[in-house]
Amino acid sequence: MPFGLTNAPATFQAAMTTEFRHMLDRFILIYLDDILVYSRSLDEHVEHRRTVLERLRQAKYKANRDKYEFAWQELEYLGHYVTPQDIRPLADKIEALRVWPEPTNTTDVRSFMGLAGYYQRFITGYSRIAAPMTRLESPKVPFVFDDDARRSFQALKTAMLMAPVLSIYDPTLPTGVTTDASGYGIGAVLEQRDGDDWNPVECFSHKVPPINSLDDARKKELLAFVMNHKRWRHFLLGRRFTWVTDNNPLTYYKAQDTESGTKMKPSSARHPQTDGQTDRAHQTAQMMLRTLICPDQKDWVDRLPDIEFAYNTSVHPAIGVTPFELHHGGRKGRIFTDLLLPRPADIDAACSPASVRKYRELLAQARANMQKAQVRMHRQANRRRVPCPIRAGALVWVSAKEFALEQDVSRKLLPKWFGPWPVTSAAGDEPNGPSFVINIPAHLTVHPVFHSSKLATYTPAKSDDFPGRRSQDPPSMDGHQEVDRVITDRKYSSKPRQYNVTFRACDPDDTRWVSGTNLKASAPLIYAHCERQRLAQGPSQPAPTTRTVVPPSDR
Fold it and tell me: In the list 76, 286, 346, 395, which could disulfide-bond 458, CB 3.0-4.6 Å?
């Protein structure tokens, strides 16, 4: 690709990603023409390297052998020096920052901040230190390199010279997040404990926009936690970690439930019946907004007071009166009069025996109407309901909507149900449901509790009702399946050799034939083992089990 073309880097990156998609984040990283292959052992590295070079040859990409380095324990990659234990900035980049002259214009500031910002993950509180320099990057601010900017410039240099060595994240080690917040920025450090020491994995800081500037210190700390959790969600989601803060906001917000008497009950995902009252109110508000807002939908906030007034002055079937009447004790006429001609509240009239008696009658009437509505809704909902047939130990299907799939997999073409998996127990106080704990595979990062509406009973594939029906494959998070072992191989005349394989977590009787090219590309270790056995003409042995993949198009 020639230099200078618009969007040339993005186009080239997309082409490389397409060619090596099934290898990315498994044993390869690619940035434009920089390819990094990583492996756990030397033998595995040789197979990975051969697979990458074969894919380059198939794509007709040429590689310069003089620029390649193989089987290195330590190397430089994208401005970092990477070792098996840690990551550090390159020494020549740090030296360039150390001898950087004092900026004289906005362009110089942007150049310096571009290099310093690239290594901000090594600097604790980067946004706070760089705030005076960051303001000078704006073309709307006159360039005045004052004492604050000079101190920020020198502080960034010192911080880079004293930058710690970052450890490589290990999911097996204890993890901690330390956060801090101020009026103009937040900062955090992701650490892991190895022995008695806590080693930093990454530092993060962010300048808080004026719209998010908060006066409450607890809200600042909570905002810092939320932003850091979003940034490190690939490290923290689904794992236990320690949160260290100097303001203790979590205790404050959890104490609000105790003080107000609120009981938090977890609800199952994608099951709106759990909080039907709120969802029904939202539906009514959306329906009313749909008839009032402009076509550009930019005035919906201004219409909310109208929606609130119309909602509160309409008769609700559940209580038999309007919310305003119930709130004001049935004084329908005074509601609108008070809105037009406000007057001082008459405490004596509102608290008189007649008013109290009338309000109690209205409240009793509303309760009776609510009980009648509940009986009516209960009868309507149970008209077609049957007892739940699912019990602990049974095999069930789980709706495919409950799983997050990769972007390259079309949900429309996937099966509607995944499984079957055994039921561990019933969730909650009811022994027969309606929610159950399902023993799903460990690689599916989803909460194992599902409502019975998301489950279906399983009929064995080998039953008399469905003779010869093939069992369903288990789902995967990346649209691929793992080859478990090779049973036998075959070759017809000049056609490529084919291999009969089984897949992990699938029915052992469910075997499929795949070509040697696809097996070599997706399961290089199993393919190499089979070839050695075949060339040696020895007895066929099961191939070693390893994590390998076969693209859906090759099944």
Answer: 395
- In the DSSP assignment, the letter for residue 274 is G
Tell me, yes or no, whether 196 and 107 share the same domain.
Answer: yes
Distance separating alpha carbons of residues 173 and 167, to the nearest angstrom: 12
Q: Classify residue 420: in a domain, yes or no.
A: yes
Contact 108, 170 (CB under 8 A): no
* C-beta of residue 89 within 8 angstroms of C-beta of residue 122: yes
Handedness of CA 159, 163, 168, 174 (dihedral sign): negative
d(CA 97, CA 111): 11
CA dist 413 → 81, 400, 403, 416 (Å): 44, 11, 14, 9
Question: Are 135 and 242 contained in the same domain?
Answer: yes
Three-state DSSP state, 438: strand
For position 470, what pLDDT does the model report? 60
Is residue 238 included in any domain, yes or no? yes
- My answer on whether 179 and 92 are in the same domain is yes
Which pair of tokens denotes residue 97? 């920052």
Cβ atoms of residues 483 and 524 within 8 Å: no
The helix, strand and coil proportions of the chain, stated in percent and rounded to the nearest 5, come to 40, 20, 40
Residues 242 and 98 in one domain: yes
End-to-end CA distance of the chain: 34
| DSSP state for residue 122 in the 8-state scheme | G
Helices then strands, counting H and E runs in the chain, come out as 18, 18
Is 326 within 8 Å of 371 (Cβ atoms)?
Answer: no
Tokens encoding 4: 């200078």
How much of the chain, in percent, has pLDDT values that exceed 90? Answer: 1
Q: Which residues contact 58 (CB under 8 A, 6 or more apart)?
A: none
* 372, 418: one domain: no
Dihedral sign computed on CA atoms, order 137, 141, 143, 146:
negative
pLDDT of residue 543: 45
Q: Residues 95, 243: one domain?
A: yes
Q: Which two tokens stand for residue 343?
A: 């007057």
For residues 189 and 198, give the distance between their C-alpha atoms in angstroms, rounded to a whole number: 11
74 phi, psi to nearest 5 deg: -135, 140
The two tokens of residue 218 are: 């607890």
**Three-state DSSP class for 123?**
coil
Nearest-angstrom CA–CA distance, 482 and 456:
26
What kind and span of H or E run contains 28?
Answer: strand 28-31
* pLDDT band per the 50, 70, 90 thresholds, residue 547: very low
Sheet holding 75-77, edge to edge: 75-77, 80-82, 86-89, 166-167
Q: What is the pLDDT of residue 551?
A: 44
State the Cα–Cα distance between residues 334 and 519, nearest whole angstrom. 80
Give 460-492 pLDDT, tens digit per residue.
665 566 666 665 555 554 445 678 888 888 888
Give the integer Cα–Cα distance in Å for 399 and 411.
Answer: 12
Distance, CA of 98 to CA of 92 (rounded, Å)? 10
Average pLDDT over residues 62-90: 83
Do the domain assignments include residue 272?
no
Domain-embedded: residue 39: yes
One-letter amino acid of 8: A
Provide the pLDDT for residue 275. 72
Instruction: Map residue 513 onto helix, strand or coil.
Output: strand
